[in-house]
Amino acid sequence: MSISIKSPREIELMRISNHMLCDMHRELEKIICPGLPTIELDNLAAKFIKDRGVKSNFLDYEGYPASICVSVNDEVVHGIPSKEKILHEGDIVSIDAGIIYKGYHSDAARTYGVGKISAEKQQLIDETRNSFFEGIKMARAGNRLFDISNAIDDYISKFGYGIVRDLVGHGVGTELHEEPQIPNFRQDRRGPRLQAGMTLAIEPMINLGRGDVVWEEDEWTVVSEDGSPSAHYENTILITDGDPEILSLY
Ligand code: MF3
Ligand code: CO
C-alpha cells in the first residue's frame, strides 16, 4: 500500500490525458438541453474517444456498460446513460468521465443545470465546485491528506448539505483507482504526507438533503436515500512543490 510518485515523463502523459478529458467535457456541456436522451452524451463521448485513438477507463470497468456516467437529479454517481432517460428543464445532470492515454488515466466530473434551474439547485452545484477549490488549497507538499478532507467538510457543512460518505476520491495514474482514498468529510487520522509527483482525483459528492445513499437495482446507479438532488465535481490534480496543478482543467 503506497502512493505512487509520477516521473516527469509520466506527469506529461497524465497532463495530455487530462487535457483531452477537459476538452471532452466542454464538448459534452454544449449539447445539454431539455429533451436530450442521456445516451446522446455517451454517444458523443464514445466518438470523441474513438476519434483520438484513446480509451474510456469506465467502459468495462468491473463490467460497467458505458463510456461515461450520467447522473440526473437524485442520482449521485454512476448513472448509466440510456435512450429512455430524457433530460428535462430544471434537472441537474452530473457527467463523470475518464480517458486512458498511453496507459495513463484521467478522471473528472462536472454538474450542469438543464435549461433554467432553481436557485437552490444552482447553489448546490456552485458550492460543490467551490468545496473542491477549498480542498485543493490544502493540496500542497508537506501537508497531510486529511487537510484536504477537512477543508472540504469545513466549507460545505456551513450550507447544511449532506456530504456523501460512502464514496471517496482517490489516487489516479496507471490505474483509475490508486492509493490513497480521499474522503470528503472530516478525518481524525492525519493520513499520509503529500509529496510532489502525487496525482489525485478529488471529488466531492454533495446532496441537498442528507448524505446517505443507496444503490439502485442495476447495481451501479447510486442515489440519495432521501431523494434530494446531488452534485458532483471532480478533477485530477498534481501535487507540486508549489501550487497544485489541476490537470483536468486548463
Ligand atoms: N469516476 C468514478 C470514480 O472515480 C469511476 C467510475 S467507474 C464506472 O469513482 F465504472 F462506474 F464508470
Ligand atoms: Co474519480
Describe this structure in words.
With about 250 residues, the chain is of the alpha+beta class. It has one domain (about 10-240): Alpha-Beta Complex (Creatine Amidinohydrolase), CATH 3.90.230. It is built from four helices and 17 strands. The protein has a five-stranded antiparallel β-sheet with strand order 10-9-11-16-17. Strands 1-5-6 form a three-stranded antiparallel β-sheet. A three-stranded antiparallel β-sheet has the order 2-4-7. The longest helix has 24 residues, at about 10-30. The structure holds 2-amino-4-trifluoromethylsulfanyl-butyric acid (MF3) and cobalt (II) ion.
Tell me the CATH superfamily: Creatinase/methionine aminopeptidase superfamily
Q: Total number of helical segments?
A: 4
CATH-derived topology: Creatine Amidinohydrolase
Using the alpha-carbon principal axes, give the shape. globular
For the biggest β-sheet, the strand order reads 10-9-11-16-17
Task: Give the amount of beta strand, in percent.
Answer: 15-25%
Radius of gyration: 17 Å
Ions, cofactors and other ligands present here are: 2-amino-4-trifluoromethylsulfanyl-butyric acid, cobalt (II) ion
Q: If you average the pLDDT, what whole number results?
A: 98
| Computed structural class | alpha+beta
Which blocks of ≥5 consecutive residues have pLDDT under 50? none
In N-to-C order, the SSE pattern is HHEEEEEEEHHEEEEEEEEEE
Considering DSSP H and I runs of 4 or more, what fraction of the residues is helical? Answer: 25-40%
The biggest sheet amounts to: 5 strands, antiparallel
User: What top-tier CATH class fits best?
Assistant: Alpha Beta
